[in-house]
Structure formats: structure tokens, C-alpha cells
């Protein structure tokens, strides 16, 4: 199982977040991922975030989604660059080609499915766009959160709509694309046929809105912002303690009855609160009563008490604290830069057989064009003089 996917090669014309996140998932599975970038411009994310290495194009924001990859430069706006791409598709050979370019650029850059399929018939081709391949409308994560309704239902009831703390449109589209690639690989294993996969970021985000969209459009339920509370369950909210916030999530009446038996919570054992419907009906006063108790206690004391009776609870942690969680600490991927010695840590979605065999270690995010000599030289046979000429003419 360790080498189930390690014989697969991914060539990805990628930038920003959504597609690099998808191909990071493929790298976690052991696939060889080679990112394509323009020789002069590169991925804009290379120049975003804190400067942690004294190098151009290696800023911190680029690191997380590009561990475990190789990088080559190629100017697909030139005939020679497109010829090189097509040779790579055949000679590497490439199993999966990915892009998040605008759809209008596909044929112009020589990356459209029909062109690449003619070179390698069993190729799996994936394109991520904002609204599908028939649209060239620009799309960034915050705009998609706004347009999908996700932002409109996030935030306090009396406050403005708010973004999620994570770029959910980017990440979710990458996850959906990952699933589609796995399905396409299964289809190819059964039939020998390649596939074209198109992922719409808008469709991806809206697909998570299955519950609020159905409730609003089919049943006429008003969907409003609720802050930290839940529409259908109570109590479910964040409460301030003497040393931080704790989130309590009560999912059934048995859990609530167990809470009211805890020392200090007996006063909440009211007849009207015995059922979830009763608690929802009086949620503001219920939460105020809980807040008055929580603010007198320590977070660890409360979380221990609730866990002892089987009620889901957690201290609200800062990002720096999460890596110390016992359920994550032993499952963190590390990548060390051989040049500077800098080591970065990442949480994989799961410890795959490949990661386990690799000791949870992957290669450091690649410099712009770092693997030009290896791939263009070893695979396509270019010598040092030819590579230097291609670089001078900004073909690579």
C-alpha cells in the first residue's frame, strides 16, 4: 500500500491557493507533483507574507501548500514553451494535468483537454475555475464566500456579515477536486480511459449550503446570522471563563440533564429546559445563566467536568496551541530546508501509508524553477548550454 500512488506524476499549472492545496493532497498520497510557473512572474503567492528566508520568491505564505513538490518554469505564451509542455506530457509521462487558469486561456496556452488528450489518451485533466469552464468571470475566495451566502450567515445577529477565518472556497474546491481525481483514477484503472474534470469554486461552496438553501427556498425558513450559537440546538456557544473561552455543544436532552447534575449547575434543572425545544425558545436567558456560571470557573476545570459526563466541549485554542493537541502531535508532517535549516510543520488530513513510510517527512517548498535542470535535462535531454539558452530567452 505504501507505493500505491507513488508511480503517478502530476503536472500542475498552479497559483494562489485552491489548486496548490489540491496538489498538496496528492503529494501527501505519494504522487510526484511538478508545479509549472511563468519564468518571470511565478506564482504571486511566492511574494506574499513575511520574509523568513533572505531569498526572492520564498515568502512565508507560499510554503504551506507547496511542501513535497518540484518546480519548473515554462513560458506557455511561446510556441517553444508549448512544445516543451507537450513533450513533458508524453515523456515524463504525466498521469494528471491540473490548471486553475481562466478557461479562455486553455487553447491559447496549449493546455486544453483535447490537445493534451491527443498526446496522452489516458490523461486525467482537471481545471478549477470560479464558475465553471463556460465563464471567465474572475473569482477570489472572499467574493465567493459573499456570493454563495456563506458570508451572509456568518457573524453576530446585529453585526455585519463576516468572512470565515479560513479561505473555505479555496480549500473546499481543492478537496472536491481531490475527490474527483480519485474517482477518475478508479475509472482509468477499470477502463483504461482518461477523464476531464471541471471544478466550479462557486458550485463547491454552494454545495455546503445544502441545509440553509433548502430551508430558505423550500420551507421558507429565515436564515440569519447567529454568532456562535446554533439554530437548532441549545446550549451551543462559546462562554468566557476566568482564563479563556470554552465552547459547549449540547446535542441532546440526556446531555443537558447530565449537566444540570453537576455542582453549580443544579439551578438550571428547570422544567422548561428539559427539552431542546424549550431551551431554544429561551436561548438568550439560558446562555446568560450559563455565562454567569462559566465566568466564575477555570477553563480546564469546566472541560474536565463536561468530558466526564460525555458532553462535547473544548477550550477555544489559539492557532499556536493546536499542534500540542495529543490527537495531532504525533501526526505532523515536517519539511526541512537543506539550505537554511528552516523546518516547517503541517497537519495532513490523515497519515497516509506514504507519509507513514516516509516518517512524516517531505521535501521543502521548491524555489522558482528549482528542478529545471533535473526535469528538462534528465527527461527531455537538454544539456547545460541548451538550458542556459532557454533561460536567457525566458522560455524556461
Question: What's the CATH superfamily of the largest domain, by name?
Answer: Crotonobetainyl-coa:carnitine coa-transferase, domain 1
- What percent of residues adopt helix (DSSP H or I)? 25-40%
Integer-rounded radius of gyration = 25 Å
Specify the structural class. alpha/beta
Report the portion of residues in β strands: 5-15%
Mean pLDDT: 96
Give me the CATH architecture of the largest domain, please.
Answer: 3-Layer(aba) Sandwich
The DSSP helix count reads 16
Major sheet size, sense and barrel closure: 6 strands, parallel
**Topology order in helix (H) and strand (E) letters:** EHEEHEHHEHHEHHEEHHHHEHEEHEHH
What's the CATH first level of the largest domain?
Alpha Beta
What's the CATH topology name of the largest domain? Rossmann fold
Number of domains: 2
List the strand order in the largest sheet: 3-2-1-4-5-6
Identify the overall geometry: elongated
- Poorly predicted tracts of residues: none
Please give the number of β-strands: 12
Structure notes:
The protein is an alpha/beta fold and 396 residues long. The chain folds into two domains: 9-207 and 328-392, Crotonobetainyl-coa:carnitine coa-transferase, domain 1 (Rossmann fold); 236-318, formyl-coa transferase, domain 3, CATH 3.30.1540.10. The protein has helices at residues 18-28, 79-91, 106-109, 113-119, 141-147, 168-191, 201-207, 210-219, 253-260, 276-281, 283-294, 299-308, 319-322, 353-357, 372-378, 384-392; strands at 9-13, 32-37, 70-73, 96-99, 124-129, 195-200, 236-241, 244-249, 313-315, 333-336, 343-346, 361-362. Strands 3-2-1-4-5-6 form a six-stranded parallel β-sheet, sandwiched between helices. A three-stranded antiparallel β-sheet has the order 7-8-9. The protein has a three-stranded mixed β-sheet with strand order 11-10-12, with no helix packed on it. Helix 6 (168-191) packs across helix 7. The model has no long low-confidence stretch (mean pLDDT 96).
Amino acid at each position: 500500500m505504501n507505493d500505491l500512488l507513488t508511480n503517478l506524476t502530476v503536472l500542475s499549472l498552479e497559483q494562489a491557493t485552491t489548486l496548490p492545496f489540491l496538489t498538496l493532497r496528492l503529494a501527501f498520497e505519494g504522487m510526484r507533483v511538478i508545479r509549472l510557473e511563468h519564468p518571470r512572474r511565478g506564482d504571486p503567492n511566492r511574494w506574499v507574507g513575511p520574509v523568513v528566508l533572505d531569498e526572492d520568491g520564498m515568502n512565508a505564505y507560499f510554503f504551506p501548500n507547496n511542501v513535497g513538490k518540484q518546480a519548473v518554469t515554462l513560458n506557455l505564451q511561446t510556441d517553444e514553451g508549448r512544445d516543451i509542455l507537450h513533450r513533458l506530457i508524453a515523456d515524463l509521462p504525466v498521469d494528471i494535468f491540473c490548471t486553475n487558469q481562466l478557461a479562455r486561456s486553455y487553447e491559447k496556452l496549449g493546455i486544453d483537454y483535447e490537445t493534451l488528450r491527443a498526446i496522452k489518451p489516458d490523461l486525467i485533466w482537471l481545471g478549477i475555475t470560479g464558475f465553471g469552464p463556460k465563464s471567465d468571470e474572475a473569482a477570489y475566495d472572499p467574493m465567493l464566500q459573499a456570493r454563495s451566502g456563506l458570508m451572509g450567515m456568518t457573524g453576530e445577529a446585529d453585526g455585519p456579515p463576516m468572512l470565515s477565518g479560513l479561505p473555505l472556497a479555496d480549500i473546499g474546491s481543492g478537496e472536491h477536486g481531490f475527490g474527483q481525481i480519485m474517482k477518475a483514477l478508479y475509472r482509468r484503472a477499470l477502463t483504461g480511459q482518461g477523464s476531464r474534470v471541471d471544478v466550479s469554486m462557486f458550485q463547491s461552496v454552494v454545495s455546503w449550503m445544502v441545509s440553509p438553501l433548502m430551508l430558505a427556498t423550500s420551507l421558507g425558513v429565515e436564515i440569519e446570522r447567529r454568532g456562535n450559537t446554533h439554530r437548532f440546538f441549545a446550549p451551543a456557544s462559546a462562554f468566557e471563563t476566568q482564563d479563556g473561552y470554552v465552547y459547549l455543544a449540547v446535542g441532546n436532552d440526556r446531555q443537558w440533564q447530565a449537566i444540570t447534575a453537576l455542582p453549580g449547575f443544579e439551578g438550571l434543572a428547570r422544567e422548561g429546559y428539559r427539552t431542546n425545544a424549550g431551551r431554544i425558545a429561551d436561548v438568550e436567558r439560558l446562555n446568560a445563566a450559563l455565562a454567569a456560571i462559566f465566568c466564575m470557573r477555570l477553563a480546564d476545570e469546566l472541560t474536565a467536568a463536561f468530558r466526564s459526563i460525555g458532553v462535547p466541549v473544548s477550550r477555544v485554542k489559539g492557532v499556536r496551541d493546536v499542534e500540542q493537541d495529543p490527537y495531532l502531535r504525533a501526526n505532523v508532517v515536517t519539511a526541512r530546508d537543506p539550505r537554511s535549516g528552516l523546518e516547517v510543520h503541517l497537519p495532513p488530513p490523515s497519515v497516509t501509508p506514504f507519509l507513514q513510510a516516509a516518517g512524516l517527512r517531505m521535501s521543502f517548498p521548491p524555489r522558482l524553477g528549482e528542478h529545471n535542470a533535473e526535469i528538462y535535462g534528465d527527461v527531455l535531454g537538454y544539456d547545460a548550454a541548451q538550458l542556459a539558452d532557454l533561460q536567457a530567452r525566458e522560455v524556461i
